[in-house]
Amino acid sequence: MKKLTTSVLAVVLSSSFAMVSAQTIKDTAKTQDIEGVVVTALGIKREKKALGYATQEIKGDVISDAGQTNAVSALSGNVAGVQVTAPSTMGGSTRITMRGISSVTGENRPLIVVDGVPLDNSNVNTLDTQRGAGGRDYGDATFDINPDDIESVTVLKGGPAAALYGARAGNGAIIYTTKSAKKGRTEVQLNTGISFENIYIRPKLQNFYGGGSQETLPTRTINGTTYNVQEYATDASWGPKYDPNLMYLPWYAFDPEFANDYMKPVAWVAPNKDVDDFFNTGVTYTNNVSVAKSFGDTNVRLSYTNTQINGIVPTSKINKDNFSVNLNTKLSENLKAEAIVNYVHTAGYNRPEVGYGDNSVAQKFYQFGQRNLDFSKLKDYKLSNGNQRTWNRTAYNNATPKYSDNPYWTINENYSQDSRQRFFGNAGLTYTFDKHFYIVGKVYGDVYSQNIDTRVAVGSQAVSNYTLEKRNVSEFNYEGRAHYSNNFGDFNVNAFVGFNIRDNKMSWLKGTTVGGLVIPHIYNLDNSKENAKATNRSYHSSVKSVFGSVSIGYKDLLYVEATGRNDWFSTVNDDKLYPSVTGSLVFSNLIKADWLSFGKLRAGWSNVAQGTDPYSRLNYTVIGTPFGSSQMYSDPNTFNDPNIKPEMKNTKEVGIEASFFNNRFGFDVTYYDVKSTDLIIPLPVDPSTGFLFKRINAGEMTNKGIEAMVNITPIKTSDFSWDLTWNFARNRNKLVELQGDLKNYILTNAPFRVQLAAQVGEAYGAILGTDYVYDANGNKIIDENGFYKASEIKSLGSILPKYNMGFRNTFKYKSISLSVLVDIQEGGKYFSTTNMFGMYSGMLEETGLGGNRAAGVVLPGVKEDGTVNDILLDAPTWGASFYDTVDAQNVFDASYIKLRDITIGYDLPKSLVGNYIQGVRVSAFARNLFAWNLSNKGIDPENVSYGSGNYQGIEGGSLPSTRIYGFNVNFKF
Length: 973
Prior knowledge:
Layout lengths: L2 E11 L3 E10 L10 E3 L5 E3 L7 E5 H6 L16 E4 L9 E4 L12 E4 L2 E2 L8 H4 L4 E2 L13 E7 L2 H4 L10 E6 L8 E13 L19 E4 L2 E4 L14 E6 L17 E3 L13 E14 L2 E13 L6 E14 L4 E15 L3 E2 L6 H6 L8 H4 L14 E3 L2 E4 L5 H7 L2 E17 L4 E20 L8 E24 L2 E27 L10 E27 L3 E12 L6 E10 L10 E15 L11 E6 L2 E5 L3 E2 L7 E14 L4 E13 L2 E5 L8 E5 L2 E17 L3 E18 L6 E6 L5 E5 L6 E7 L8 E2 L7 E9 L4 E11 L2 E11 L2 E4 H8 L21 E2 L11 H10 L6 E3 L2 E12 L2 H4 L5 E14 L21 E2 L6 E11 L1
Parallel strand pairs: 8-12, 35-39, 45-50, 49-54
Antiparallel strand pairs: 1-2, 3-4, 5-11, 6-7, 8-9, 10-22, 11-12, 13-18, 13-55, 14-15, 16-17, 18-19, 19-20, 20-21, 21-25, 23-24, 25-26, 26-27, 27-28, 28-29, 29-30, 30-31, 31-32, 32-36, 33-34, 36-37, 37-40, 38-39, 40-41, 41-47, 42-43, 43-44, 44-46, 47-48, 48-52, 49-51, 52-53, 53-55
Membrane topology: Multi-pass membrane protein
Main location: membrane
GO cellular component, one term: cell outer membrane
């Protein structure tokens, strides 16, 4: 049987370094099967028993069989110690962290690596979008990874595992290895799939009362006839109770060209077509074809995938094309070459706006609106002259939108377009001198351009606008290494040294109209009423590194490894050396017992640095918006320190892994202790200095936690098997100190009320707002007006969970397989703007009071004198108190239990598929099928994220979360 001994990479020098990875396969008694090998940092394959740090591997079919379109969000629930937040907005951002938060304002996400290429994972969402104040979620750049091409995913969870990547992998690394052709084989595959997406978790709305602010409808005399009309300009639902005998003129009764509705009263009743009827069934089509061919010493794999996503919001869609070429060849006995090239084109149309924004349909549906609106009537959103028809008229005789556009106007007229073209991959050569020594060099490239344009049509409630953004990003890594391996009696040595030169560039250009558009439907910057505004900036940074590793093994029993990497940053003053030391003891080689299949103790330590943004060492003049004909220049808001140092992250971890009874039972447990120091923060300073902030090194943050994974095979026969995998992660984060007496660092403000902060002595991401006030017996205190008494501003809890866990059951019977994943999160908090304003405006189910608003509300609690509260609040006054009294009313627990995915697969028998097809596999799947244990039944805790950065836990106005179900068919020829 062929077995893997080591990973071989080689170098060639030309005008630049070009490198390629390859592997040497030999027959030897001392090597172990490929199943005992994992991909580690720098793409080097290592035997699991030799590793002194925690890793976890996921096979690519776990991702592809479940119909995933996002290779990062697919990790949710599958990996211990990895927290994934994947909102259901179409193609939206995926927030992923490992082992907690270690930087107050810096990067907290792991490094994403595809076939050795460090992939840019920038999130281009605006600050307003991320804090829930409105905007479109354009997702992360890792959406470009093609799930159909993934062979395996290796998760390097901590500093000791990822230290060789340097500063950028201080938060761990996720390594994707794509499929390649196998020597001596030819394979053609066709994979086609379709999935359907329906709204699932969304706010529940009351169905007893219609729009308005008073209990009776106003009247107006029109052309000599008196009619009941509506408070068209009021975007709230504190109006009269529904009554089929009460007739009124609806908003759509004032346009003569709609003769069937013109001046015709209708009954004051709940609509036949409500909010849910607005949403479509989303449909995603995925088609992949791949050809893998071996020509002697040359192996080639070509792959093309087309993904078409049609979202739940009408008109929203994404089209993505992935092309890849994977080539490796043996040029001579000693020289090998490999190249991997990927091209991706992603085009989005009208990605829905989220949060509290003008074009956020979720904000209009669940926060401010009128519950009597019939969506079948809203579809006629435009007059023949192009003017908008909206329910939110300024008056019966004034059709100008007051606060809200017609939602069908929003999705058809106020849309966006985005596109991204990307090339990434590597190429190179490998030269092997002998069985002990080889050199390797590689160039990795990642280049993409992204265009975004947004439009607000003339006639909208907001000022008409056209905005165009263009962004170009590139990263090249030039790397060389020399490897040596040998055996000396009972000892074996693996070592390498190398260097890396990283070069990053980014340019950004934005143009926007000012004052509105002159001519409707012409979206060009020259169509601006006033001079259009243009802004641009560019960044260029580099890191130069040298690194090395030495691993010594003794009798397949004891392994010790030391690594070191020194980075010279262009963005900070000092260079930094980050070392790591790991060790493992394979105690199963000491304990000779039939019941013990494998056992290992491991320990690791690392010290990793993290730099900061480009141009953070010096102060540069800011060019402001001209005032009339005069240009404006100023100092920046933040004073940059030329002596700024990198953030430092010190990690210690210990672990044990073992398997028993021929691998029928096994576990892997890790404890880690991480301390981050010299945190880079913009410290608020006295404005008399000429600056608002000063960038400094200050503070300390710690993360301590435990990760566990258990594998059990309760049943295993020739025809049937049952495998159970359980993973668990618990992290305790604490901001130990900031600077001097500074106790709070405000990260951002919500659209209204609360703030998100890093608070000394607390876990990161504290939600700051007012809380209830309690008496000595734990009763909520009611003030003299009948409202909850509000505390001073305080922490209402952290966005970070207490723990995450996942259970995967896999059943196989002959050619049939069934896999079920349950994903659990306990703890964490989020603030809901939808709950605050949905209660304020009388939209949410609770405000209907079961159809008896006249009874009013007496809040449970005691007065300040200790007597039971008996103060009656009318319904609108009670609803309004959710906005301006106690913020804790709108803060919810982020716990959930989710049936994350179910996948059923069946391999058709050979007698059925014939001789021309090697195999056919049919799989059906369902994702996010059910959710339990929600603090707010109408909001999915995962759906409150609008970016993958540090701004989390603030729900500004989210679309419903969704259920997805579908099937795939895979043909092998």
